[in-house]
Amino acid sequence: MSWEMLLWLLALCALLLLVVQLLRFLRADGDLTLLWAEWQGRRPERELTDMVVWVTGASSGIGEELAYQLSKLGVSLVLSARRVHELERVKRRCLENSNLKEKDILVLPLDLTDTGSHEAATKTVLQEFGRIDILVNNGGVSQRSLCTDTNLDVYRKLIELNYLGTVSLTKCVLPYMIERKKGKIVTVNSLLGIIAAPLSSGYCASKHALRGFFNGLRTELATYPGIIVSNICPGPVQSNIVANSLSGEVTKTIGNGGDQSYKMATSRCVQLMLISMANDLKEVWISEHPFLAVAYLWQYMPTWAWWITNKMGKKRIENFKSGVDADSSYFNVFKRKHD
């Protein structure tokens, strides 16, 4: 075979590889590093078994589904949120669908905004199980309101709950991980902690703050390679997060979550989260297109990202004002084009 022929074959292989990667990206529901870990990485059922996992926001949505899937892996669970009756419901289902016993699941009511209670809650977990292997910071609330229609109290609540509450609980757990020189701090952030969108200025601010805090914390823990700090950034997921979102007043929520069918199934989001936790990934993006593509644009081509975000943002506001889910229409258009 001549050198010229060999070069042509190499060029053809490179082109085919590029086409395959493009096709994979068009059908991706997570960043490519995460999907590679799903294919070739460590398995959650091997890496997470027998660990003690504390999940906040465990009464619904991602936190609830995470509790169910973790229970099947044989972990010891601490379930925290404000609504005790909902936590008890989640606990019962975990026991029904797994081999866990009553002693393996602790229901621990927790208000993230009551930072004075976090140290006592941490000691309760340690007294019950002796250690905390994984802290999953999942508690929080979203927002659906224009800045000009939003009271300052709403912004204060978003920062106190989403950001300061999470930082406070992390600071209570971290010394014990440092003492053991190992542990995982997993924070459920959002794609809106990477990009930005109208109707969610306060929510974006709280999530960008979280990303900055945990990225900074990771650098401070460089001398403790056994302590892993992970940011999980989901896009739209089927849950009650929109229905429970704050509106322009801190005492009012949206109440109607709208159509959820176009969003990623919560079970798939949590499946990818467990892959991330098992493989110690520092940051993952979990979303279908077009939101995943927009996240990549924000990361690598911000000028184009601003232009597209402004176009999408206008439609988002129109949807909200007409009473439908803010993100539904252009998501469904993309799905129809690629089905």
TrEMBL record:
<dbReference type="InterPro" id="IPR053011">
    <property type="entry name" value="SDR_family_member_7"/>
</dbReference>
<keyword id="KW-0560">Oxidoreductase</keyword>
<dbReference type="GO" id="GO:0005789">
    <property type="term" value="C:endoplasmic reticulum membrane"/>
</dbReference>
<dbReference type="InterPro" id="IPR002347">
    <property type="entry name" value="SDR_fam"/>
</dbReference>
<dbReference type="Pfam" id="PF00106">
    <property type="entry name" value="adh_short"/>
</dbReference>
<dbReference type="InterPro" id="IPR036291">
    <property type="entry name" value="NAD(P)-bd_dom_sf"/>
</dbReference>
<dbReference type="GO" id="GO:0052650">
    <property type="term" value="F:all-trans-retinol dehydrogenase (NADP+) activity"/>
</dbReference>
<dbReference type="InterPro" id="IPR020904">
    <property type="entry name" value="Sc_DH/Rdtase_CS"/>
</dbReference>
<protein>
    <submittedName>
        <fullName>Dehydrogenase/reductase 7</fullName>
    </submittedName>
</protein>
<comment type="similarity">
    <text>Belongs to the short-chain dehydrogenases/reductases (SDR) family.</text>
</comment>
<dbReference type="GO" id="GO:0004090">
    <property type="term" value="F:carbonyl reductase (NADPH) activity"/>
</dbReference>
